[in-house]
Amino acid sequence: MKLLIIEDERALRESIAGYFQEEGVICETSADYASATEKIALYDYDCILLDIGLPDGNGLTLLQELKAAGKEEGVIIISARNSLDDRITGLNLGADDYIVKPFHLAELKARVMALFRRRSFRGNNQLQYDCINIDLPTMEVKVDGNLVTLTKKEYDILLYFIANKGKVISKNALAEHLWKDEIDLADSFDFIYTHIKNLRKKLADNSGKDFFKSVYGIGYKFS
């Protein structure tokens, strides 16, 4: 999962990022309206945590722009404003959820994971595809009933492909999803080939099937 945290309060921003990173979530952060707008224009995220009281703009305006641009990220507003009008306005503009400060990080995580499941896997805790079963809360993967040990990157790749099953995924899209803006520093896609190769073998060894179809010059399709 890839998360963008838009929050001007440094301590809270770093606390949220650290908490989710310990859970294996890829996190990017923005402290103001301008940098958030730039990141949203350049990259895609699974979920955006949006503070509406930014120093150089209104987070609700940013939400409007995000929706107008056709971006499909889930959005959870994090705000110190607790009025009914603010909640209704945020939800009517397209936010998926609204949580009031101060909040427990465990509750925030539960809301993020619920949103991720709802948008990607119809709210299920158990993800089943063919002979592959994934327990999302525990990140346990079984293939044909056999427990398969995956690295964090292999697990993220598997989830990404199942969420986009049947679609051709380019190497650029996959690299950006997994490595965020650090991908700009890479000079080849060797790391993509390596992770796909290892995951492909683990799935095939336990199922006898090759789920990854190479699309020459573009990327892969999971089917």
TrEMBL record:
A single Gene Ontology CC term: cytosol
Ranges for domain OmpR/PhoB-type: 124-223
The Response regulatory domain, residue ranges: 2-116
UniProt DNA-binding region: 124-223
Superkingdom of this protein's organism: Bacteria
Protein name: Response regulator transcription factor
Residues with 4-aspartylphosphate modification: 51
